[in-house]
Write a structure and sequence with these properties.
Elements: H1 4-30, E1 40-46, E2 66-73, H2 77-107, H3 115-131, H4 136-198, H5 203-220, E3 223-226, E4 232-236, E5 239-243, E6 246-247, E7 249-254, E8 268-273, E9 276-280, H6 286-322, E10 336-337, H7 343-346, E11 348-349, H8 368-375, H9 378-419, H10 423-457
Antiparallel strand pairs: 1-2, 3-4, 4-5, 5-6, 7-8, 8-9, 10-11
């Protein structure tokens, strides 16, 4: 539009644009500190001459006016992807560290109630018996110390079993959470696509999309890929879990029964999407990856090592005991019995106090066997190596977690500098929009005065 009235139209477009700018700044301020909110900025374009020239005339008016071309989210896709990756690594390390620390606390070493103390008491009772092989009380102390030692080993095994049960429940809960979030993300992708076609602002939907994708990748360690329609696809270990507006289902394929018990197999997963089921063969990361590694590798490895210590200890005691003679001169019997499949949980004293074989020679109370059993320290060394190895692993996990926490914080800080709300910047933008709004209103008042002069005052005869 050219002519005097075009100035009114230009002022009107400025008023509209600056109003949107003020509303956007106000929304940014209102959402300061809200997790997942990304700062918005209004983008504009100048209204100029017609883009298609007329055949018999030309546009002689000036360029003028402005219109809102959209509301831009100040987000960097590469920074978002980096943030998701680092948070998945941190979740993996934190989950692992928490479980290992809890397991270490259950070991109770060093302390007066752990296996080391029970082993020391067991050796001391044999030493007391060697000093007085005829003492029924000393033999009773040997039996009592052996029973206490067996209970200590059983407590260690129960601690591992309890941790495995906790991790199985955790894995089951995480799988359910993944499926719920996957459905929400697919619905958000659908809403983004519909909003894009309708031409409406989808900034809030994109915030929701990024938040859900971060939750999914934090749990599974998966990757998110942006689609041309604005949605996000989620791939877990090379298998798609969310494909646009379609959500897949993650399920436990083996290792955990529906009741949360172990089925004797390693924990594995499968993803069903679009009627087809794909086995998840790649390693997971995130919370679920740490839980899976604990169930498949870490906890069974510690249980196997503990069982080896118990088996070797019991076999060594039995070998020395059967070579000796008891209080009545009979040949010694195996001192301990256990289930070969689970020695730590089933270790049991198999003799009575009179059957304790302390002597080398039948009919002689020399205490030679008791001396050897009191002096042996092979089991103590093996157990110390087990505990030291576990302690080193826990310390390493804590160091890695602290390092990853620093890296994640750095990435989040860089992301916040771009996407976070800065109240000083918003205040400046709001004041600038306010002043521009006032200037546009002044232009409209000026044009109104000019038109009043032209219409009502020009040509008057006095």
């Amino acid at each position: 539009m050219s002519g005097t009235l075009s100035s009114l139209n230009s002022a009107l477009s400025a008023l509209r644009y600056q109003r949107v700018a003020i509303e956007t700044a106000s929304a940014n301020v209102a959402n300061v500190g809200v997790e997942g909110f990304t700062r918005r900025r209004v983008t504009a374009e100048t209204l100029g001459a017609p883009s298609v020239p007329a055949m018999w005339s030309r546009y002689t008016g000036p360029d003028g006016g402005v219109r809102t071309s959209g509301v831009e989210r100040l987000a960097d896709p590469l920074m978002e992807a980096r943030s998701r990756t680092e948070h998945a690594k941190l979740a993996y390390l934190e989950t692992r560290t928490t479980a290992l620390t809890r397991l270490e606390s259950g070991i109770g070493e060093p302390g007066d109630s752990g296996v080391s103390a029970a082993l020391s008491d067991f050796r001391d009772t044999w030493d007391d018996l060697a000093n007085d092989p005829s003492s029924i009380a000393a033999r009773g102390q040997v039996i009592a110390a052996a029973a206490a030692l067996a209970d200590s080993f059983a407590a260690q095994a129960a601690n591992i079993d309890n941790e495995e049960a906790t991790q199985r429940l955790t894995a089951t809960g995480l799988v359910g959470e993944v499926n719920t979030i996957a459905v929400e993300l697919s619905e958000t992708n659908r809403a983004i696509n519909a909003g894009r076609l309708d031409g409406t602002d989808t900034s809030s939907l994109h915030d929701t999309r990024d938040r859900l994708a971060k939750q999914l990748t934090t749990i599974t360690g998966g990757t998110a890929t942006e689609r041309s329609d604005g949605g996000l696809d989620i791939t877990v270990g090379g298998v798609k879990l969310v494909d646009g507006m379609q959500a897949g289902s993650l399920a436990i394929a083996s290792g955990i029964t529906p009741d949360g018990d172990a089925d004797g197999l390693p924990v594995s997963y499968e993803i069903t999407l679009g009627g087809s089921t794909s086995a998840h063969t790649s390693s997971l990361s995130g919370e679920l990856g740490a839980t899976t590694e604990l169930l498949n590798t870490t906890l069974p490895g510690y249980a196997d090592h503990l069982n080896t210590v118990v088996r070797d200890f019991a076999d060594a005691v039995n070998a020395a005991h059967v070579a000796g003679h008891d209080l009545d001169g009979g040949t010694g019997n195996p001192f301990f019995t256990y289930d070969p499949a689970d020695p730590a949980s089933t270790l049991t004293v198999a003799v009575t106090d009179r059957q304790v074989a302390a002597s080398d020679v039948a009919g002689s109370l020399d205490g030679g066997v008791a001396d050897r059993l009191a002096a042996s320290g092979t089991a103590e060394l093996a157990y110390q190596q087990l505990v030291s190895g576990r302690g080193t692993e826990v310390a390493s996990a804590k160091r890695l977690t602290a390092t990853q926490q620093l890296l994640t914080t750095q990435v989040d800080t860089a992301k916040e500098q771009l996407s976070g709300v800065n109240l000083d910047e918003e205040m400046v933008d709001m004041v600038a929009a306010q002043r521009a709004y006032e200037a546009a209103a002044r232009v409209m008042s000026t044009v109104d005065t000019v038109l009043d002069t032209l219409i009502n005052r020009t040509g008057l005869v006095r």
